[in-house]
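Narrative summary of target 7.
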Amino acid sequence: MAEVKWAYVSPLPRNQPDGNLGIAALKMDSNPLFAKYAQHIEMLLIQRFAARGADLNARIDSVAHELPEDLNAQLRELALAHHNARVPVKGEQAEDIADFAFRCGQIAERLENFRKTQAAENLIFVGPDGKPAADPEKTDLDTLSLFLAARDRFLRQTADLSLKILVIAAALLILGFLLGLI
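Modeled conformation, tokenized:
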């Protein structure tokens, strides 16, 4: 197993005026952090999208038809960055690890949101019996439109009658005050 060498590198001064100690970044001679973040993306692809394949590229290929183009492109860029991270580079920068981790987090969030949105859309098109909802027949639509027209007519007449009763009651109240009956 390859030996991992850790070194503390702070991009900011240790004692800043606001009391912040700075952001600790890890500089490494090998790439287990890249592998860990890439593995998280692979597990999301396997668990949420049933991806198949031996490596990240194969898994991305197996679910490419389900994902939007921009998310697919981001996944391919991430796989390329992960492949390039496997090649040992002397003096690897901590910013590369932080950037890779940030991009993995963004992609993981987008994958989760996409899966949740897809699940919500699937629920909309399923009837109460669990079968896909079918479009209503033309005769059903005609009957439904007749019912809606009758309902609207009834509600309009009821509202007109209610308004007339309210106006008459207000007029009787005013008349009662004027005649001193109330």
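Residues 138-179 form the longest helix (42 residues).
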